[in-house]
Amino acid sequence: MGHRQRRELLGKLFEGIALAATVFGLLVLAFLLLDVARRGLGVLSWSFLTSYPSRFPEQAGIRSALLGTIWVMALTALFAVPLGVAAAIYLEEYAPRNQLTRLIELNINNLAGVPSIIYGLLGLELFVRALRLERSILAGALTLSLLVLPILIAASREALRAVPMSLREAAFALGATRWQVIRHQVLPVAFPGILTGMILALSRAIGETAPLITIGALTFIAFDPRSPFDKFTVLPIQIFNWVSRPQAGFHARAAGAILVLLAVLLSMNGLAIYLRYRLQRRYQW
Amino acid sequence: MAARWREWGELAVQALLFFAAMVSVFTTIGIVAVLLVEALPFFQQVSLKEFLLDPQWTPLFAQKHFGIMPLVAGTFLTSAVALALAMPVGMLSAVYLSEYASPRVRAVLKPALELLAGVPTVVYGYFALLTVTPLLKRIIPDLETFNALSAGLTMGVMIIPLISSLSEDALYAVPSSLREAAYALGATRLEVAVRVVIPAALSGIAASFILAASRAVGETMIVAIAAGQRPTLTLDPRRAIETMTAYIVQVSLGDTPHGTLEFRTIFAVGLVLFLITLVLNLIAMRIIERYREVYR
Question: Taking CA atoms, what residue in A is nearest to B99?
């Protein structure tokens, strides 16, 4: 075998290893999903979805956790989306290139890397204690809003940046003010991208556990939350609670709840892909 | 008159938008203020020397010790295990995606890999405790039920896409003229990747490693579920340990009253965690900024 051939062979070998490394993570993920499905599918039933948690694994369900998740997500979207989009509009369309703008940008980048449990400590002191919201849905949603804000801002900025400058210039030429240009021309075109970012941010928030534990959400909830000031639990916390118990019955319940959580996450991501596809086609120029 | 109103409206909108952008700055100020306000009284009672040098962490016991080293050691241990898995695997897949995969394969594999990062960490925790640990126990019989090894390995799987995605961006940004020059000299694809492209993208790759380390240090649920609650000054990954984040979870779950020295420990620990990740993030951001300037 010649020198060149040996080098080529080595290259082929490396390509194989690199491919194996690439699919390694995916195989682990597939294995994990199969493993959870094997343990959790038997648990899934209507009564699992509609029963409150219980000391007895056979009776325990995720009703309060599911309702809590819906409540927290709805409020988080309500707070975080307008705030994130507004911040993105400011940074893309208004901000002068100066020190303050640079500081804001640096700050957002850095916040994206702050561990989520630190947000929990902030939420505990600021929302639970200083604003006296107690361990309420509202305190949880506010905490998660701050947590996902950097993701939302980044995604919205990207969507705004993708809007062609000619569109803005055309509107300005007709005498529109800056806000009119943004409101009537830029935002509609950027909407699919913003929507995708919003779903991305919410799917991050939906899996968050640590900050909600820190603000004190882990409670045995055997009633339906009815207002933003009620105590609450969410799916990931219910899963954590069940995983932490020694009985195998609860572990199966945890697997069942994971399947529900992943189903919710998957349908959200599916929706994001679908919406982006549908809405993007309308605005082609 | 109408024009005047329109101007005022424009200004009001701009002010509102500016305020929204400033929320992030307020958030940072809030985080720093909260950590300092609660941690400073802690340091009035516990000396910095004890905090940094005492080899024991037992704030919830009768015999109290406030040495953060065991928590730092636990955090370091799980992060090191995670990085030992994620750095080579993430790096290899970055090279594959950037240098080998056809555009179509890349378009499928890259988002598929990013799915890994979208799985909630509590699910990874379940996986670490109930699947990985029993599997590892067959190979390592004296593995403890809660251990740093399976928590770290699972966390490694979670951060693979962070490394592969960012490193791939860095590799992909290397100008193709460099590759072509190497091919013209008779180099094989592997030689081009290893001797030309990777060295050229080294700063971006380093930044991805640092960001991954920061993520590992701050990760909470996997270690809270699978690594244990025993602060131990050890480098043996088979043993139960406790990380800084897992300790904060432990206290949050308990009934330690707010305002006590014991409760304030979580803010002192949080402050250390915040500082470590801040330094790592700043270094990574610095590197990324510099490397962007080189190629544009």
Answer: A15
The SS3 of residue A231 is strand
CA B91 to CA B214: how far, in whole Å? 17
The ipTM value here is 0.93
d(CA B57, CA B229): 11
Q: Which of B277, B148, B195, B122 is nearest to A262 (CA)?
A: B122
Give the pLDDT confidence of A167-189 residue by residue, as tens digits.
999 999 999 999 999 999 999 99
Which of B123, B166, B222, B277 to probe by mutation at the A interface, max A CB count within 10 Å?
Answer: B123
- Does the model's pTM come out above 0.90? yes
Tell me the residue type at B106: R
Find all residues with CB under 8 Å of A80, minimum gap 6, and list them: A144, A145, A148, A149, A152, A201, A205
Quote the CA–CA distance of B25 and B28 in Å, as a whole number.
Answer: 5
Q: Report percent pLDDT > 70 for chain B.
A: 97
From its phi and psi, is residue A221 left (phi > 0), alpha (psi between -120 and 50) or beta?
beta
- The DSSP-derived string for A36-83 is HHHHHGGG-SHHHHHSPP-SSGGG---HHHHHHHHHHHHHHHHHHHHH
Query: What are the backbone angles phi and psi of residue B257, rounded to the nearest 5°?
Result: -70, 145
Asked if the Cβ–Cβ distance from A207 to B17 is below 8 Å, we say: no
Tokens at B228, concatenated: 């244990």
List all residues of chain B from 110 to 169 with a beta carbon under 8 Å from chain A.
Answer: 112-113, 115-116, 118-123, 125-127, 129-131, 157, 160-161, 164
DSSP state of A245: S
Q: With an 8 Å Cβ cutoff, is B261 touching chain A?
A: no
